[in-house]
Write a structure and sequence with these properties.
Elements: H1 3-25, E1 29-33, H2 45-56, H3 58-61, E2 68-73, E3 88-92, H4 95-108, E4 111-113, E5 116-122, H5 126-134, H6 136-144, E6 150-152, E7 156-161, E8 164-168, H7 171-178, H8 182-187
Antiparallel strand pairs: 1-3, 1-5, 2-3, 4-5, 6-7, 7-8
Pfam family, one: Tnp_22_dsRBD
Organism: Sus scrofa (Pig)
InterPro entries: L1_C (IPR042566), L1_dsRBD (IPR035300), L1_RRM_dom (IPR043636), Transposase_22 (IPR004244)
Length: 192
């Protein structure tokens, strides 16, 4: 391996480590998307979150939300005159609480705030979100072929093939594996 290849490999490893570190910092965060602007005047973001939980996830609303550490609106980075509402970040003290809330929200299917549909999701770095988006088309094709695909934390694809569970961190590794399996290569031919 020459010096340039070593440098590239080290750079890629450092970028992955930074992304993992950033995702670890954000691990207890929940991102709320779609809460209308101006709704928090006089209420506070924490109260809005508690109201969302109480109305949409009644089993969670019975427990006091003492695990709430911080809540804030995320400022616009690209266009401050954008008409869509800013995201709200909720920082919880325990990851178990975040997992319970997200699981209950997925089970309910549609979460609303004052009649407006909103979305609760885990907070990830921009790089991780992009990596997760890249798996989207492959996930849809695999679901159609009954391969039981799943997106693991933070952005790894896992699926069942020939009785075994296979996990891949990027498309290149999936491409290399699929060349050894003609059936899988046929399923993913246009996507890889």
């Amino acid at each position: 391996m020459d010096a340039e290849q070593k440098r590239e490999k080290r750079l890629k490893t450092n970028e992955e480590s930074l992304r993992e570190l950033w995702d670890n910092i954000k691990r207890t965060n929940i991102r709320i998307i779609g809460v209308p602007e101006g709704g928090e005047r006089g209420k506070g973001t924490e109260k809005i979150f508690q109201e969302i939980i109480a109305k949409n996830l009644p089993s969670m609303g019975k427990e006091p939300l003492t695990q709430l550490q911080e809540a804030q609106r995320v400022p616009y980075k690209i266009n401050p005159r954008r008409k869509t509402p800013r995201h709200t970040l909720i920082k919880l003290t325990k990851i178990k609480d975040k997992d319970k809330i997200l699981k209950a929200a997925r089970k309910k299917k549609q979460v609303t705030y004052k009649g407006t549909p909103i979305r609760l999701s885990a907070d990830f770095s921009a790089e991780t979100l992009q990596a997760r988006r890249e798996w989207h088309d492959i996930l849809n094709v695999m679901k159609g072929k009954d391969l039981q695909p799943r997106l693991l934390h933070p952005a790894r694809l896992s699926f069942r093939f020939e009785g075994e569970i296979k996990t891949f961190t990027d498309k290149q590794k999936l491409r290399e594996f699929s060349t050894t399996k003609p059936a899988l290569q046929q399923i993913l031919k246009e996507l890889l």
